[in-house]
Amino acid sequence: MQADIALTNGRFWTVQNDNPWVESVCANDGNIVFVGSSKDALEYIGPVTRVIDLRGRFGLPAFNDSHVHFHPDMVGQAHRLGISCIQDITVRSGLQDLKKMMQGGQPSLRLRLRPPLEEVHDLADYEELSATSEGWIKLIGVKAYADGRISDGSALFFRPAMNQQEDAQFPVIAKVDEWKRHLGAALDCGLAPSVHAMGDRAVHLVLDLFEEIRKECPNNGPRFRVVHASVVGPGDIPRFAELGVVAEVNPVQRFAQDWLRGIIGEQVRWSFPFRSLSDSGAILCFGSDHPGPNASNPFPLDPLLGIYAAVIPTEGDPQSELYHDESLTLEEAIEAYTIRAAYAAGEEETMGSLRCGKVADVIVLSDDLFRVPRDRIPDVEVVLTMIGGIVVFSRTGNVSGIY
Fold this sequence. Notes:
By secondary structure, this protein is an alpha/beta fold. The protein is built from 13 helices and 19 strands. The protein has a six-stranded mixed beta sheet with strand order 3-2-7-17-18-19, covered by helices on one side.
């Protein structure tokens, strides 16, 4: 088979345990048809193949951001940052923007939609958009809220935070019976529930709810998610793996741990417990939560900044009894932005790693993440983004030659 495009003479980490490092990736009709040595790639290169000689540059599967509040203006920014797929927290008012984007042709960015749980009985518009997008847009789940935000005192803790609102309304307490009905309807449609829970009590209550529902829904069904899981009590850490619940976390928010200590005190020990969750067997996927609640100071969309935030040591005094380093390895952080994000959406068989038959979503970076000092990761840039076998971004402007 002759490839449409061949990225050769690179150094790709495939996120595939059985074939972790390769030199070349070839694609045809949007899918990967070869991963391996540059010598063997010659078999797939013909007179019409676009060949890009990477001259040793480092490559990865494109990033998958599992938590974004999407706007069409974000597409170009996503391309520049190496993002091929975003899992949107969808609101009905944004559907018209998505429909207009589709009228212009394929969106060149994979969108995965999660409308509000309360709309589970009225999903026709979302389903129509999904059905007409040829797989670029998919309805994958529903989103609900168990509590609010730590910053404004509306997160739910066992030990109330310093800024706790006395009259805070917590949906997970007020709407449990209603939620059960809605979640049952979602699961009947094959849609996975994603529930926002920041405080440790909210996380605990959501896990209790998931455990009850799991009795009627097997683990090989839709992937349940706790969104944010900013503070998780030690007794709830192992329950994620036991219940098959994905922790959808936001690594850049680890930068706020020092601020968080002033609000929740000793509970900060169990904030952003990435290491503990991973060691317990839980699946973590990363999202930026871009732009976040503050439009004037948005959460950064850049996955490389998220990877950096996940691998740096936890803030605080290592000599303190409360200290525990919750950082991840580089491999784990990359997986959380690729194959595990795909797993959370039920798409690990079609994206998230470089393997024959998967979509040809590939990025090339300015530096090798495995060879640069950890503190230099934020300086690394995406130099090429390929989505579905098409180069949608090149930092040099050179999409057909040598990098």
